[in-house]
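Researcher: Structure prediction, please.
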Amino acid sequence: MIALKDYLQIEFGLSGLDEEKVYGVPIWRLARTQFRWKVRDSRPFTVSTDITLWNAAINFLCSFFALVKLAILGKKVTALYFPHPRLYYVNGQYLERLSDPLIDVSGIEDYLILERNQNGTHKRPRYHQSHVVYLDFIDVLVRLISYIVRPFIAQKYRKQIDSLYEKLNVGFHLNDENYKTFFANIISNFLLSRWFIHPIIRKLNPKVVFFAPRGTFDYATSLCKQYGATTIELQHGIVIDESDLYTTNEYCPEYDPDYFFVFGSSNIGLQYGMPIERVLNIGFPYKNYIKSLGGKAYSSNVALVASEPELTDKLIAVLKDIVNHYPQYEFHIRCHPQERFSEKQYESISDCPQIQVVDNRIESFCALSQYEVVIGEISSVLFEAMSLGKKVGRLNYGGLNAKETELLHGGTIVNSVEDYHKFMTTPYSGENDSKEIYSDYQPETLNGILK
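Model: Predicted structure follows.
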């Protein structure tokens, strides 16, 4: 695998990557993240679809009738939301924690939510259900038709594809014609999705469009920009360094959002691939909602462990080491939403009753409310814990690296087994914690854009 830093040095040395366009949008921007995954062999793990054919058919038909109704009878809206597909069960219903709380505090009453499924399913009862329309019809139809039209798309855009391929080949020595098929497939999906969503966007003609993340809905958001809407991406995780998704050497107004809303002032920076003046703090209204639920279920000797797919084995080794030295401590491992424990990993902790794997379907802020102590490496869950006033330990040994930056910092750095025991037995002030990663809602941010 090529290190991202080394990869970016090559990519940023190439010129003219944004010149080949489709409907005014650079093909390179549509393909960039997936190209990086492909070249670097770094595609994130995803959980496989778990839905019956019958339920998929029902979702498809419900989506079809709702979208047709919108195209014919839909009315102009002020706000259009393309929420992150991941929903959480909170207080008796499912919600998307980025957009749903924002809807409640924004004061915008004429809005619509266009929702993609997650792993084939839509969760119900859904918060704001009466405003939700499913996008399954478009997603499924595009998958089916793309196989038929891709050869024609490849021929139509052959010059652009060949030109982009040659430019990238200079730096990455691809020497693989399959990359041309890769680009043709991305163009086909983009065009088909855009054609199907176009009547909806034209009818709704939104003033402002919220979405997360940009690569998931680029076919719709780029179209909304061309209709004059202000597009706003909502931060969906903590980013403190270079990333496949965001890092860029130049802002692209045809593709990138007009603004990027972050959860708190500590997140403002260039790491989201946006000019700094376009990165604004909207706050995190969901935080206050969770605080109102209250409750702590576990003793101070029990720590919630924030895991990540690439760190799980290292975390297990560190936790077992701590338990061997200090058996009084217990650990509840909360896997990343796109992570599943393997049989081998379950077997590795079978002889340690102090280490358990807990349900990761529970939304992270809800899970945090049950614990006094939270540990991990660099997961965004740790910064969520800081915003809730939890005792946070950041593991920095056994292959784990607790990175810190000027804006993103905090917790107690744990460099050894002995450090963990000291962390657990020492009063925690939290004075160094990054409190403004999740700020209170800032209404003036959105009001200034809606004027």
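Model: The first strand starts at residue 21 and ends at 22.
Researcher: Thanks, that helps.
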